[in-house]
Design goal:
alpha/beta, Rossmann fold, 2 domains, seven-stranded mixed sheet, five-stranded parallel sheet, 13 helices, elongated
């Protein structure tokens, strides 16, 4: 090839390469911060769902995405410090789960967009003016879990019609506590159930459940909506099993791991939906203009193995409603 032709080829290759080089230089790194109320060992699958959904939309860690994650690991008092630590990294958008983690971030910034993943009480906690028109820097998805207590008690009563005395496990501090406890009491009256609240602040406090429910003082158990209970689910399920208490839970993870029955929103789907909001915001949308989404379907999971161990014959009316039956 003569020198003139070599020069023309070189110029041609350079011209073709220039747009790609410019694109590579222009491709920015998006910074997404994640604060989770919970323990990584117990809730890691939810973060995995977030990562998978981000990847589906083209956000790849190490290429155009930097994901910074913090877990509160049971220490509620750490939430403000963890939120401040993440904000120092100047994220483009913050994902917080659930409401109390969102509150911790919201107290520190009114400018960084915050996407809530799950939880209840966004309006009551001052995070949004309304679900339809948030009006501030917070949007995302709720789990609507504070509305599901009547249905959970109804399922428990249908599963075990003979029960009349039900223990209610709570911490008394979750964002949804007041409404959930009120709804539980109202529903209990209609179902002719007597409720006994058992409050705990750590897995080690589960001995209180034994103390209250020993000698058949309780006939069943309602585990109230609380993000900490997801992290403590192994201990809670073990205690309910020891006490031979038919129990209803708010998350499918409990039933899949040995609990009797669960009814609630699909946590994995909520995290996938949260990524929809992250993508919208990174593309220029404002949180104030993005309505907070509520789940439109809930999943009922029944563990037949646990039912058999408790001597319970699961009614057909429950089985036909179930989204998942574990045998």
């Amino acid at each position: 090839m003569n020198s003139r032709r070599k020069l023309l080829v070189a110029l041609g290759v350079g011209a073709l390469a220039a747009p790609f080089a410019s694109f590579a230089q222009a491709q920015r790194e998006y910074r997404v911060a994640v604060l989770v109320w919970g323990a990584e060992r117990a809730m890691g699958t939810r973060l995995a769902a977030l990562r998978a959904a981000l990847k589906q939309l083209g956000y790849i860690e190490g290429q155009n995405l930097r994901l910074s994650v913090r877990w509160h690991e049971g220490a509620v008092e750490r939430l403000p410090d963890l939120a401040a630590e993440l904000l120092r990294e100047q994220p483009d958008v913050f994902v917080a789960a659930p409401v109390l983690a969102t509150v911790a971030v919201h107290k520190l910034t009114r400018t960084v967009p915050i996407v809530m993943s799950g939880g209840s009480g966004a309006v009551a906690m001052g995070l949004a003016q309304s679900l339809a028109h948030p009006g501030g820097n917070v949007t995302g998805v709720t789990n609507q879990g504070d509305d599901l207590t009547p249905k959970q008690l109804e399922l428990l009563k249908t599963m075990v019609p003979r029960i009349s005395r039900v223990a209610v496990l709570s911490t008394g501090v979750s964002a949804a506590y007041e409404k959930t406890w009120h709804d539980a009491q109202q529903s209990a009256q209609a179902l002719k159930l007597q409720l006994t609240e058992v409050r705990i602040g750590a897995p080690g406090d589960l001995a209180r459940l034994t103390s209250v429910c020993g000698k058949n003082a309780c006939e069943a158990l309602l585990v109230m909506l609380d993000p900490r209970f997801v992290s403590w689910r192994t201990e809670i399920i073990e205690r309910a099993t020891q006490l031979r208490l038919p129990a209803v839970y708010f998350s499918a993870e409990f039933a899949r791991e040995g609990g009797l029955i669960s009814y609630g929103a699909n946590a994995t789907e909520l995290w996938h939906r949260a990524v929809f909001y992250v993508d919208k915001i990174l593309k220029g949308a404002k949180p104030a203009d993005l309505p907070i989404e509520q789940p439109t379907k809930f999943e009922l999971v029944v563990n037949l193995k646990t039912a058999k161990a408790l001597g319970i014959k699961v009614p057909q009316v429950i089985l036909v409603q179930a989204n998942e039956v574990i045998e």
